[in-house]
Design brief:
22% of the residues lie in helices and 44% in strands. It has three helices and twelve strands; from the N terminus they run αααββββββββββββ. Helix 1 (4-26) runs antiparallel to helix 2 (30-52).
């Protein structure tokens, strides 16, 4: 999505360029051409200045994270490059294996993770209404394991939903060292390979080799949202 300020800058620049071309159509000669180039340069410089006004998110440092009292995860939507930081809103256990944590942004977008596996989103376009997991235990190693079917229900138009059922297997791709904001972790890279006639989904999880905590993942959130990259910033 283009920010309103950038959209206005682009619209104004296009209008100025159109005026330049109209001027070129009515005049001729090297003097007029030189004037047109000067106007184009001015327009280009103005656009650059306006684009610089776009606010940039300050970098996250470990010192900043250490100063926080709450737990946070970082979520980036790959296709749109949306970035958000979420804190836990609710933690509960139910009849399904695994602890369910509901995470929330400042503008009330929520993600539900069961032992780190994405099971629902709210507040995004064509949300994941629900998803089963291959989580088999509570309080042990986080992430999926084994093999079996996963059922995704995705919001569609007219208050309807689409259901995707995929056959999934989880493989251990071996040890891998990852870095999250100035800290490194020794992990096992688990990969969940899910397939059906509709297509293929590949989810990746980086689980701490000692504690079993899930530090990082890349998970599919539906055909519209696409893949999310999730990192645990603080505990």
């Amino acid at each position: 999505m283009i920010a309103p300020r950038i959209r206005r800058a682009l619209r104004n620049s296009l209008g100025a360029v159109a005026a330049v071309f109209a001027l070129a159509a009515c005049t001729g000669g090297q003097q007029e051409a030189g004037l047109e180039l000067e106007i184009l340069k001015t327009v280009r410089d103005q656009v650059k200045l306006r684009l610089k006004d776009k606010p940039e998110r300050p970098p996250v440092t470990r010192a900043l994270l250490d100063s926080l009292d709450d737990t946070y995860i970082e979520v980036r939507v790959e296709d749109s490059d949306l970035l958000a930081y979420l804190r836990p809103l609710l933690v509960k256990q139910d009849s399904t294996p695994g602890t369910l944590t509901l995470w929330v942004t400042e503008d009330s977008v929520t993600l539900a993770l069961r032992e780190g596996v994405l099971t629902a989103t709210r507040g995004l376009r064509n949300d994941m209404l629900s998803a089963s997991t291959l989580v088999t235990e509570t309080g042990g190693r986080m992430g999926p394991r084994g093999q079996g079917a996963r059922r995704y229900e995705i919001a569609a138009l007219d208050n309807r939903s689409e259901v995707f059922t995929l056959a999934c297997t989880v493989s251990d791709l071996g040890p891998e060292t990852i870095e999250i904001v100035e800290l490194t972790y020794q992990t096992r890279h688990l990969q969940e390979h899910c397939e059906s006639e509709s297509g293929l989904v590949v989810n990746d999880y980086w689980v701490d080799s000692r504690s079993g905590h899930l530090w990082q993942s890349r998970q599919w959130a539906g055909p519209t949202i696409g893949y999310m990259r999730i990192r645990q910033l603080t505990l």
